[in-house]
Specification:
CATH architecture: Up-down Bundle
CATH topology: Four Helix Bundle (Hemerythrin (Met), subunit A)
Helix content: over 70%
Structural class: mainly alpha
Number of helices: 12
């Protein structure tokens, strides 16, 4: 099997991959995976390494120095590479775990909180308007969360319908609710409980944001028809995915222009998200509704 074949196997469907991932992050992550493929390192180890990189990035951002911003950006870049590599290794080795998938999602938020907190401390103390910086950071953080929820939901739904697999979103919620009940009274399982609890909170927020007005109905999506009608819009959804957000912050950090990052996330990506949501609703209504 050639490396190119293996690389393709390490990816999700091309339609749901971010362009910046395909041309930059995932190729580097794949080389990392290949270099440690025969070791005992697991996808969970890579996820933990990613979290450490994110925390280190936040630490350097907090310095408030230009060099600190550059180092913070470098570690955030390393975070994203490791964050890509855990899923690629899991797909190649087929050794992913349910808790590992949750930890992978939680890692994004741990890193983002560390990075934003570092910028809030470092950048605001050197600004003439620290309160304004904190407000913009809060708005950017909330915007990033909402954008991430929308991208994650529509990407998952696209894969579920096109690949004709089960409803991983709703079934995943029920699966982890059951798992939480099993480990609720086990003190040794505190880490698992924490990760599952965070996931369930995230899923409830995601469900609230993406829920339709008519909660008693669902659409009858036909795989081929759905792919044909959504293959373009899903590209736009993933265009504002987490890697695009991270890359924007990295580039702006190199020039100490966090103001540009705020414009990109708060104005640019939010406008795109709102436009896509409206278009997506119109596309969805072209499918028949199943009465429950």
């Amino acid at each position: 099997m050639t490396w190119l074949t293996e690389y393709k196997k390490s990816l999700k469907m091309i339609e749901v991959e971010e362009i910046i991932d395909l041309i930059f992050y995932r190729p580097i992550a794949f080389l990392l995976v290949k270099s440690i493929f025969k070791t005992k390192i697991t996808p969970d180890h890579l996820t933990i390494a990613a979290i450490i990189m994110g925390l280190a990035g936040g630490f350097f951002y907090a310095s408030g120095l230009h060099l600190g911003y550059i180092l913070g950006a470098l570690f955030y870049l390393l975070f994203n590479i490791f964050d890509c590599s855990d899923g690629q290794m899991a797909r190649l080795k087929k050794n992913g775990t349910s808790i590992g998938r949750l930890l992978d999602g939680v890692a994004d938020y741990i890193a983002a909180i560390a990075i934003y907190a570092g910028i809030a401390f470092g950048y605001s103390k050197n600004s003439e308007h620290p309160l304004l910086i904190l407000i913009l950071l809060l708005l950017a953080g909330l915007s990033t969360i909402i954008q991430g929820i929308l991208v994650d939901y529509y990407r998952t739904r696209f894969l579920d319908v096109v690949l004709e697999r089960k409803d991983t979103f709703n079934e995943g919620i029920e699966e982890y609710k059951t798992e939480l009940e099993k480990v609720r009274n086990q003190k040794s399982k505190w880490f698992n409980k924490s990760v599952i609890f965070i996931y369930l909170i995230y899923s409830n927020i995601q469900r609230s944001i993406t829920a339709r007005k008519n909660r008693g109905n669902s659409y009858n999506f036909i795989s081929k028809d759905y792919f044909k009608k959504n293959r373009v819009i899903i590209r736009f959804w993933v265009f504002m995915g987490p890697s695009a957000n991270i890359t924007s912050l990295i580039l702006c950090s190199l020039f100490c222009r966090f103001d540009i990052f705020f414009w990109i996330v708060i104005c640019g990506f939010n406008l795109l998200a709102a436009s896509l949501w409206i278009i997506q609703q119109k596309i969805d209504t072209t499918f028949k509704i199943l009465q429950k």
